[in-house]
Amino acid sequence: MQYIVLIYGSEKGWSSMAKEGIEQMYAEYRKYSEDLAKAGVMRGGSELKPTSTATTVRVRGGKRQVTDGPFAETKEQLGGFYLIEVPNLEAALDWAAKCPSARDGSIEVRPLASGGPA
Amino acid sequence: MLTRAIDELVRREGPQVLAGLIRWSGDFDLAEEAFQVACAQALEAWPRRGLPRRPGAWLTTVARRRAVDLMRRRRPDVPLEPEMLELLELHGSPGAEYAEPGEPPEVEDDRLRLLFTVCHPALAPAAQVALALRTLCGLTTSEIARAHLEPEATTAQRMVRAKRKIAEAGIPFEVPAADRLSERLDGVLSTIYLVFNEGFSATEGESWIRPDLCAEAIRLGRLVVELLPDTPEAEGLLALMLLHDARRPSRTAADGTLVPLEEQDRTCWDRAGIIEGTAVLDRAVARGRAGPYQLQAAIAALHARAARPEDTDWPQIAALYGALLRTTPGPIVELNAAAAVAMAHGAEAGLAWMERLERSGALDGYHLLPASQADLLRRLGRTEEARAAYGRALALVRHPAERRFLERRLAELG
Question: What is the ipTM of this complex?
Fold first, then answer.
């Protein structure tokens, strides 16, 4: 099954982090991505730019409404994602728990509706 | 009479058969539907043809045939998995259900798999409990709904949602790997304890105690002990529930008011429950791996053993609370430890501890902190302070049975 691993964390904490802290975090993410690739479960993923770069669009009554920012204000923001393919939820949770941000943020794991693109 | 015996047999064999069907088909609803049909057929066929040698195998065979029928009808275009058909062949030849028994299937394993599947932490606790009682204990949806004081439709909906999540999120039908087992078992045990506690000091409903919920929790506790025999904490939990439950009859007065431990009529305590609980605890302790449930059960056993309140071994209880604080630190355990210290070493020592707890703010809004302080102040004859503490407790207490007790105590201060 394919699962998306959504990484939520505090952008404030991230932006106020010292340079060494950021470098160490990136090193941990590189290692994590390598581990996923080596295990053959990695199907994609990326870090995202901060929510300040986000734009939301809605079409209502045929008219486009474009607004600044993410859809909802929350304490933790979506900062990146991985797409992985593993046998079941237990395996997906094991990988999610190894994600560096699991220690200070939260990782949401959701199956893809079709079990993967056809 | 025969129908009753068959009914009993179906109830006993049912959960194993159902668990096997769920593993075989990977589909809860299909398995349950096929299982219902097999049970109905058993009630019809067994009185006429006599009991099969292996009733469980008989039920499994009939249910599998039915399940294959249902699958073919639902999706005629999808070919069945060869593995499934093979198993069907193996068990499905005419009259096979009356044949000599071969190797028994791994039914125990299936129930264990089912337990860990329905108690997966990815499911809401209430749904875990409902599914476990339905599939592993054979309770009906309406029985479960009644115990949880909710409409049957709500319980049914809860189970439908959980079954859908198991299928869609890919929760595996398996016993967790060795390195995850203890963590997952903790989750199973705490879910069971949650149900027991909700029954033992209900926060909702008219009665302060809801015996149905206690009975359900004990039933699940027994099942875990049966399925995982060498697990002292599972035994500890079962012992704890049995020992608490044995005191249940004396915990409320006729008008529903809470009766504190020292005023309870100890002749009402259920001796059989205490003997069983103590025996289960002894078995657990003999395994030499202590844990929080065993410690709490040991405390409950010391209370149960005391014929009169003054016979209670408070120093031993205070020591056990100390050990419990080391394994599971937390403000509520601390409050209990402080109350035990007060009984063992004097009310002042307990009060001082409770005052530290109050200053820490960790128990803000919890009525039992001022209620415990009030009780100690009352014992010390510090009436004015006791009255103020009862007032603070009454402002926070939710359940009417506890409220009536606190009001009574306050009135007794004069």
Answer: 0.83
